[in-house]
Design brief:
CATH topology of the largest domain: Jelly Rolls
CATH architecture of the largest domain: Sandwich
Structural class: alpha+beta
Number of strands: 9
CATH class of the largest domain: Mainly Beta
Strand order of the largest sheet: 5-4-7-2-9
Helix content: 10-25%
């Protein structure tokens, strides 16, 4: 059985591989594929079920770092305006939120949906639409190592 630390490390490495080396890295990690037998190769690729949900360029920055976090938003809570120094990819694990990042209007997201926030755009709000249940997001942030990923905005 894996410890929580080992699971977190494996998840972070998988995300980093996706960002910096592409989905093929995960297929390679799944095990050796016999390149001489195209039927085996196609069967192994088909069982991976890779589907690109979103693809955005990463900002140029020295010493990039990926941070993977879960964000739990209390019932009815709303975030203060802020900016992210690098791109943010978010997936809604639970609940329903309203999110607004300039220059776009507010948009509602439900469990299983995802969104992208470009670097340095003002994130006006992230509001939990439920007054009784928390909302939970899985967030992949890219930023410069040793520098804050989030800064206040007016």
């Amino acid at each position: 059985m894996m410890t929580r630390r080992e699971v977190n490390r494996a998840a972070t490495l998988a995300v980093a591989a996706l960002f910096f080396q592409g989905p093929a890295t995960l297929l390679e990690a799944a095990g050796p594929i016999d390149q001489r037998n195209p039927k085996d190769r196609m069967r192994n690729m088909a069982s991976a079920g890779v589907q690109t949900l979103m693809q955005e360029p990463l900002a140029e920055m020295p010493h990039p770092e990926v941070t993977v976090i879960t964000l739990t938003v209390a019932p009815g809570a709303n975030s203060a305006p802020h900016r992210h120094t690098g791109p943010v990819f978010a997936y809604l694990l639970e609940g329903e939120i309203e999110n607004q990042v300039d220059p776009n209007p507010p948009r509602t997201y439900k469990t299983g949906e995802f969104f992208y926030e470009p670097p340095m755009h003002i994130h006006r709000s992230l509001r939990n639409l439920s007054s009784t249940k928390p909302a939970k997001l899985l967030i992949f942030e890219v930023g410069e190592k040793g520098k804050p990923f989030t800064i206040a905005a007016s």
